[in-house]
Amino acid sequence: MIVIDDVFGPGMLEAIQNTARSQHYEPLERTARSQHYDPLGRELGATCGYLASCPRFFEKVLNKRLREELGEFDTIGSFFRKNSEILDNHMRVHADVIVPIVKSACSVQDKSGCSYTPTHGVVFYADIEEGGTGFYDHKVYGDRLPEGVSQPEEEFGDESLWTFREYLEGKPNRMVVYPANMFHMRHPIKTPSDRLVWVSFIQVK
Question: Which residue ranges in the chain fall short of pLDDT 50?
Answer without folding.
Answer: 30-47, 100, 102-114
